[in-house]
Amino acid sequence: MMRNKQALIPYLLLVAALAGGLIWHESETVPGLGRSVVTGRADVGGPFQLIDHTGKPVSDADFRGRYMLIYFGYSFCPDVCPTTLAVMAQALEKLGPEAGRVTPVFITIDPERDTPKVLADYMKAFGPNFVGLTGSAAAIKDAEKKYRVYAVKKPLGKGAYGMDHSSVLYLMGPNGKLISFYDEAISPDALAKELRQKI
Ligand code: NI
Question: Who's near 144: CB < 8 A, 6+ residues apart?
């Protein structure tokens, strides 16, 4: 994503949507814990049918019983995506053995270029536990919608393109429900602390 003020808007919309959802779901809010914004059963997440970086079809149900730390992005992203994935990797390393209960998941918003093969190579840079997910354009759009992800193609000329996208880390519980979410600016230490408290 591009680092600019506009990029903040989708994040703030997500926060607003979650806050609204929380009122309806009567869940608790936890102020002031690092970059954590909310906890509870907000309407974020849900079923997906995608393909992992080994080419195997996977659904959200395959992750039941495990925590998922999910990030949506694309492997051609020049800056924010690799930085955020590195933060995930560092936080999980700091967490120690507990990290074994968390699966870091990268869902592409650019299925056109992010084939399983491309994702397999990309995931290697971040760790053996990282799962890369891609799928049909429709399946990816559906997942984006369920996670309130903002992602649009940005032509760069001569057929090249980048993606403008929201940049949010989602912590999902073993039951598949959202526990909390964090913005990309969270530090590895703060994220490790959050995970230690919440898993
Ligand atoms: Ni990006």
Answer: 72, 109, 150, 151
Strand 102-108 and strand 131-134: the pairing is: parallel
- How many angstroms is it from 71 CA to the middle of ligand 1? 10
Digit-coded pLDDT (tens) for 85-101: 999 999 999 999 999 99
Top mean-pLDDT range of 11-15, 30-34, 35-39, 44-48 = 44-48
User: For residue 109, how far is its CA from the centre of ligand 1 (angstroms)?
Assistant: 9
Cα–Cα distances (Å) from 160 to 122, 153, 155, in that order, read 19, 10, 6
> How far apart are the CA of 160 and the centre of ligand 1, in A?
15
Question: Distance of CA 26 to CAs 18, 20, 22, 170, 176, Å?
Answer: 12, 10, 6, 20, 18
* pLDDT for the residue 34: 43
CA of 6 to the centre of ligand 1 (A): 14
